[in-house]
Amino acid sequence: MATVYDLKSRFQTLLRPVLRRMARAGITANQVTLAALALSVIAGLAIAVWPAAGLPLALLPLVLFVRMALNAMDGMLAREHDQQSALGAVLNELGDVISDLALYLPFALVPGLSPMAVVGLCLLAVIGEMMGVVGVQIGASRRYDGPLGKSDRAVLFGTLGLLLGLGIVTPVFANWMLAIALLPAALTVFNRARKALAEVREGRP
Predict the structure, then answer these.
(1) A Pfam family this protein belongs to (predicted)?
(2) 4-202 belongs to which CATH class?
(3) Is the pTM of this model over 0.85?
(4) 61: Cβ contacts below 8 Å, ≥ 6 apart
(5) What are the tens digits of pLDDT across the range 43-92?
(6) Are 42 and 183 in contact (CB under 8 A)?
(7) What burial class does residue 42 get, using C-beta atoms within 10 Å of its C-beta: 0-12 exposed, 13-18 middle, 19+ buried?
(8) With the C-alpha atoms ordered 168, 171, 176, 179, is the resulting torsion angle positive or negative?
(9) Can you give the residue ranges of every domain in the chain?
(10) Concatenated DSSP letters for the chain?
(11) At 5, is the pLDDT very low, low, confident or very high (cuts 50, 70, 90)?
């Protein structure tokens, strides 16, 4: 099943000119990773502090777009400019999970939204990313299978944030979308486990 993650290579091509300038300026991959994390925490705090305000929610798509760009650039800097490190790998995996929680858990405080649906999606997101990393532990590749991976979650929450922030949809509609998303979130965990195990059986990590 196609996901937003499949567009990553095209997005990276667009970012490459900016990336070269960053490398020449001495900016490191780990610095970019930490910047993406800081941006996510600040934006999530804004939603948590003002859950009834429309502006922090409406700005979420912009925040997620910038975060996506930074996430793409930190990996490209590491791979293409000889900056790969064990610390970078740890920061990358932890940063993604913490950023997701920082941005999406505050939705549980938005008036009218179901805390159970929000927390459920966040838990499945953490389990899904853990399953992606477990693939490496058992001798497979790092799994990014969907249908609700990191980029797809960003589209879901970014769209709901924008629509709620502008008053285009009601919390009741958003709750239905969040509840429906629980199924592909659970399926993502299953797909990553299944495909990781298939790789191990076929002996092709």
Answers:
(1) CDP-OH_P_transf
(2) mainly alpha
(3) yes
(4) 158, 159, 161, 162
(5) 999 999 999 999 999 999 999 999 998 988 888 888 888 888 999 999 99
(6) no
(7) exposed
(8) positive
(9) 4-202
(10) ---GGGGHHHHHHHHHHHHHHHHHTT--HHHHHHHHHHHHHHHHHHHHHSTT-HHHHHTHHHHHHHHHHHHHHHHHHHHHTT---HHHHHHHHHHHHHHHHHHHGGGGGSTTS-HHHHHHHHHHHHHHHHHHHHHHHTTSPPP---SS-HHHHHHHHHHHHHHHHTTSS-HHHHHHHHHHHHHHHHHHHHHHHHHHHHHHHHT--
(11) low
Determine the Cα–Cα distance for residues 57 and 39; give it in Å rounded to an integer: 14
**Residue type at position 123:** L
